[in-house]
């Protein structure tokens, strides 16, 4: 079942753009791991926060991706730029008015 992981990453002051650059580096390997979408954004009202929305084929694919060498390396690279404040939520998709019920079809 399609899985969503959406959250916020608090950044060290004035380091937000570095985190965005890191998270938006092209990485086709994510597709192979089961990532259907990975969107990164900002909001000028919260200048030290990065917003991330991930869509995965399943919760298991997301969890397994964390063991991938390139994913683990990116996480390690980002750590010094983060202030430890994280927020968000996760859920399995039930359906969409654009696709109908979650029948496993891709985005």
TrEMBL record:
UniProt keyword Oxidoreductase, yes or no: yes
GO MF annotation list: monooxygenase activity
Gene3D superfamilies per UniProt: 3.30.70.100
Domain ABM intervals: 3-93
Keywords: Monooxygenase, Oxidoreductase
Protein name, entry field: Antibiotic biosynthesis monooxygenase
Protein source organism: Brachybacterium endophyticum
